Amino acid sequence: MSYQTRPETMERITTPALAKAFIDEQIAEIRKQVGDKRVLLALSGGVDSSVVAALLIKAIGKQLVCVHVNHGLMRKNESENVIEVFRNQLDANLVYVDATDRFLDLLAGVSDPESKRKIIGKEFIEVFADEARKLEGVEFLAQGTIYPDILESIKQAEGKKAVKSHHNVGGLPEDLKFELVEPIQLLFKDEVRVVGEALGLPRAMVYRQPFPGPGLGVRCLGAITRDRLAALREADAILRDEFDKNGLAEKVWQYFVIIPDLKSVGVKDDSRYEGWPAIIRAVNTKDAMTASIEEIPYAILHKITARITAEVEGINRVLYDIKPKPTGTIEWE
Ligand code: XMP
Q1: How many domains does the chain have?
Q2: Domain of residue 276, residue span
Q3: What is the pLDDT of residues 1-31, one digit of tens each?
Q4: Atom 9 (ligand 1): residue with closest C-alpha?
Q5: SS3 label, residue 29
Q6: How far is 4 from 6, CA to CA, in rounded Å?
Q7: Do 103 and 124 belong to one domain?
Q8: Which of 142, 162, 195, 263 has its CA at 20 to 30 Å from residue 168's CA atom?
Q9: Tens of pLDDT, residues 208-256
Q10: Which one of 330, 332, 333 would you pick to mutate in the ligand 1 pocket, going by the greatest count of ligand atoms within 8 A of its CB?
């Protein structure tokens, strides 16, 4: 696949005025490209797909069909937020698919990280393709491709080996042929955020921390079980809540909880209490190739530990991972 390259003369989008000019230009481009045809978009709720959705809603309204696939590996309230913002606030044509059982059934007993990723990526495409086949008159597929994705593809084409396979909605089955609409393909992430704000998307969505495509699936280590996944989702929500309350959310690049498939002995209400440890990871990085550790104040770590062990069923310890990347990758799988 050949991509455009960013012209050296292209000004960096750093202000609302520059964002507005970009938005107006793209609205005209999109209208010219798609005419009165329908456009399909996989809306994950991440910054990139959200900005593309908002841009297309402005350009072509209900000609855009957004499909949000909940693979059961989303963080707490994430799918609900996507529905609230896009269906209720922006009046988007949004198809919501709860495919939790499809994914979790396929993943049952699978412990190898790359096998888990492949199952999630493949099933994601299948669920999305099933929805696409139900729709009529769709000729275009919009994607939240951004410039670093293009640079990465070029690098991989040059033969460098990827450490982990990342997935998006490329590779749809043969019977589904769409022309691509990729309005933010020349933008860097910081520019996407400026455009997102200018489009009126909620700040929490525009500044959302990166979240891997396989979601909590690669943070519920080894073979995923529903009870451990539920504990992970609750513990992660507590961590995010405490980061919000203590001013860390906008300071730290990525922070999350991991739960290994391991139990240790603990004590609760004078009884033996076997539980999982929740592992906290909080990192800062520029490009995710290397990462440093955020020094979370002890008092906040104590508060998070107390809340997770008191509020989440099945967790009896909280650990803090202080290994930078390398040698630790950001995710544990
Ligand atoms: P690692 O763990 O490789 O992560 O240091 C670097 C960044 O990439 C994210 N990540 C993924 N993103 N699909 C994605 O879309 C994946 O399979 C995947 N694995 C890791 C990770 O969250 C971090 O931001």
Answers
A1: 2
A2: 219-320
A3: 557 899 999 999 999 999 999 999 999 999 9
A4: 212
A5: helix
A6: 7
A7: yes
A8: 195
A9: 999 999 999 999 999 999 999 999 999 999 999 999 999 999 899 999 9
A10: 330
